[in-house]
Structures are given as C-alpha cells and as structure tokens.
Design goal:
- The chain is mainly β.
- It is built from no helices and eleven strands.
- The strands form two sheets. Strands 2, 4, 5, 6, 9, 10 and 11 form a seven-stranded mixed β-sheet that branches. The protein has a four-stranded antiparallel β-sheet with strand order 1-3-8-7, with no helix packed on it.
- The chain is elongated.
- It starts with a strand and ends with a strand.
C-alpha cells in the first residue's frame, strides 16, 4: 500500500555524475526523514545523506561536497545528486523514509525501505 521505489542507478565513470530518485506512493499522510543509504560489496550499510521534513540535511563525511540530497514534496520524491563519483561510491543505494499513512482504522506508521538501486563507478 505504501512503498518507496528507487531509480537512476547504473554504470558511471569515475568523475562523472548521477542522480538517484526515490518516489513514495500510497495513501500517505506525511513523510519524515527521507534519506539514502548504501551498501558496498563486503561492507556494512551506511548512511549517505538524509533530509528532515524541516529541511535539515546530514551527510556522511565521505560524500560531503560531492553529494546533495533534496526533495520535491509535490512529487513525494527524494533525490540524491552525486557528483565527482569515485570507485568507492560503488554499491547498492537504498531509499529510506518514515511514513505516516492512512489506514482503515486511522493512521499507520512505518519505517520504509526501497528495493535498492545499483550504482557502479568504474575507474
């Protein structure tokens, strides 16, 4: 009923750019703390960037100055603009959001994850 769908992943050369999108769909009341996580091969999942409903942002040190997170409230979409990509940015990127949605008995609350989109940066 409520889901997140990522898109925009693919193969990119080092130094290149890519923009990821994550769209929320369903009977949504509100969305909070939309963010991006990634998991590199053989590594643990890590927070890349997040943005709160108030507009505050937070980035991993490894991507500061290169990545930008933004949202389009009308489209219920969060973006991750990735510039100056490095091979170490390679991994599966996951969208995450805390969603309050309309349920039959009132409001439901879920911490939701997208299915992930692969980003591969070649050198």
């Amino acid at each position: 009923q409520v889901q997140l769908v990522e898109s925009g992943g693919g193969l990119v050369q080092a130094g290149g750019s890519r923009r990821l999108s994550c769209a929320a769909s369903g009977s949504i009341f509100s969305i909070n703390n939309m963010g991006w996580y990634r998991q590199a091969p053989g590594k643990e999942r890590e927070l890349v960037a997040l943005i709160t409903s108030g507009g505050s942002t937070n980035y991993a040190d490894s991507v500061k100055g290169r990545f930008t997170i933004s949202t389009d409230s009308a489209k219920k979409t969060v973006y991750l603009q990735m510039n100056s990509l490095k091979p170490e940015d390679t991994g599966v990127y996951y969208c995450n959001a805390y969603i309050v949605y309309y349920a039959t008995s009132g409001l439901g609350r879920r911490d939701c994850w997208g299915q992930g989109t692969q980003v591969t940066v070649s050198s």
